[in-house]
Amino acid sequence: MEASSFAGTAHDESQIQPALADDERLALGARSNPTAFATLYGRHRESVFRYLRARSTNDDDALDLTAVTFERALIALPKYRSIGAGFAAWLLRIARNAAVDHGRRQRARPAPAALVEAESQPADDDPEAAAMASDEHRRLRALVRALPEPQRDALALRYSVGLTARQIGAVIGKSEEATQKLLTRALSELKEAYGHEQR
User: What DSSP designation does 5 have?
Assistant: First the structure.
């Protein structure tokens, strides 16, 4: 397996703009209409959970943090202002802060154990092939955990949630260009580390 397997499909920019506008309309409407917030919750809960699962050590923590994220978002909604990257980026910034707070409370470094999804078992249920695939995933996850936190976080937002560099930048507080460099550097380091292990 190559580190390039992280290069999942990015959202097409033509699909992003209408979704951003609809989210903006719903976010502003949710200040007085709980149904609008429920729609936003339904639309974004899975991506928030995936991101938080990538930062957490287990499903229970990710579920708790997802609930905390939406609770904080509901409370902060009257102060919501579009930062140009849309409601999802604003929401994921809240999720990121919730994960950081949780990590501080736990005094443990969050590990992106779910960043790399497990591949499906081979069709012939070959135990040897399944064991080899599992070993590859373990090694790749260990390499991701060895990256600096900003790189791990950017990768989690990119490949667990599918955000663009611009949206990730809004979440982590960097410019689009700096975020793209961070992602490129992270993938390059993963590829180099993975190749070094294969020698």
Answer: G
**DSSP secondary structure code for residue 128 in this structure:** H
CATH number for 172: 1.10.1740.10
Domain that holds residue 89: 10-111+128-198
Domain assignment present for 89? yes
Residue 15 lies in a domain: yes
Predicted TM-score (pTM) of this structure: 0.69
Dihedral of CA 121/124/127/130: which sign? negative
Number of domains present in the structure of the chain: 1
Q: Which two three-digit tokens encode residue 110?
A: 């969050």
152 inside domain = yes
What span, in angstroms and rounded, lies between the C-alpha atoms of 129 and 113? Answer: 21
> Which tens digits make up the pLDDT trace of 54-91?
888 789 999 999 999 999 999 999 888 776 778 888 99
Q: In this structure, is residue 168 part of a structural domain?
A: yes
Burial 18-43 (b: 16+ CB within 10 A, else e): eebeebeebbbebeeeeebbebbbeb
pLDDT digits (tens, 9 = 90+) for 110-138: 444 444 443 344 445 667 766 666 677 77
